[in-house]
Design brief:
The strands form six sheets. The chain has a four-stranded antiparallel sheet, with no helix packed on it. A four-stranded antiparallel sheet has the order 2-3-4-5, with no helix packed on it. Strands 6-7-8-9 form a four-stranded antiparallel sheet, with no helix packed on it. Helix content is 0%, strand content 53%. The termini are far apart. The chain has 285 residues and is an all-beta fold.
Length: 285
């Protein structure tokens, strides 16, 4: 694949960069520093940032001017220009142990969101789906929810519990709900790799950021490893496709737990891939 060397997209160091989202109507990337409790972006005016009083981790787009944001207590609508927040539904609001983590809009207008213990307490988290105004738990006993993404056919979802080192494939019914039990898509345990955030391109191939390995790996729809790109950050956390033709791969990273961060640790990167991604789905609220 014809890919350029990853370049720094944004120099602001994130303690835990996560949840990159390319807003297709605005042509703008948004991402989070979960531990810094902030949403970041860049537009024609330069760097932008919004500070919160709780952990925020993932987003979907509602319309041109608003996002659905997942926090440690709720899913809420966020007005980009005014910073106004309007809570939609609670998310483990009465559980002080957990916070939100990885999430993504599904092809049906729903939003899948994972939670986890703030100190990665074993089995403290879960994966939920927000759909038609309600939140329903899909999978329980999750330690570190990650890799939530969807195939172009609209009938396949992926997710991972990072500590298990396996990416799961889940069949969906015609309303986007899980049908049957998940099956292992890729087992990374033998290679000692840790699956973090993931995204699926227009060809149905899954791109997975692998925490601690300084890379994003691409897997065919049958789970066969195809290639990997090196990211100049030790803890690459999540990819997203964007740019005018959806051929730019963005990647967040984290400086969390690194005593002496190198130049790239915690920064956000971009690379031209020559491969087309999927436009992020709109969330219906």
């Amino acid at each position: 694949m014809a890919m350029t060397v990853p370049q720094v997209f944004d120099k602001r160091r994130c303690e835990l960069g996560e949840g990159p989202l390319w807003h297709p109507e605005r042509g703008q990337l948004f991402w989070f520093d979960i531990l810094g409790k902030r949403l970041l972006s860049r537009d024609e005016t330069g760097a932008r940032q919004w500070q919160f009083d709780e952990h925020v981790s993932a987003a979907g787009w509602i319309d041109r001017d608003s996002l659905l944001i997942a926090s440690q207590t709720a899913l809420f609508a966020f007005e980009i220009e005014t910073g106004a927040r309007s809570d939609i539904v609670p998310l483990e609001a009465n559980n002080p142990v957990t916070r939100s983590n990885d999430g993504r809009a599904d092809p049906f207008g729903g939003f899948w969101i994972g939670t986890m213990g703030k100190a990665a307490e074993p089995g403290a988290g879960a994966i939920y789906r927000f759909f038609e105004g309600k939140v329903e738990r899909l999978f329980a006993g999750i330690t570190i929810s990650n890799a939530i993404c969807f195939a172009p056919d609209g009938r396949t979802a992926y997710f991972a519990d990072t500590v298990e080192r396996r990416i799961q494939r889940q069949k969906l019914d015609d309303a986007g709900w899980p049908e049957g039990a998940p099956k292992v898509f890729v087992d990374l345990s033998r290679d000692g790799l840790n699956p973090d955030g993931a995204v699926v391109d227009a060809e149905g191939c899954l791109w997975n950021a692998q925490w601690g390995a300084s890379r994003i790996a691409r897997y065919a729809p049958d789970g066969v490893f195809l290639s990997a790109i090196s990211i100049p950050a030790r803890q690459t956390s999540c990819p997203a496709f964007g740019g005018a033709e959806l051929k730019t791969l963005f990647a967040t990273s984290a400086a969390e737990g690194i005593d002496a961060p190198a130049d790239g640790d915690g920064l956000t990167f971009s690379a031209d891939t020559g491969i087309t991604g999927q436009a992020e789905h709109r969330v219906k609220v």
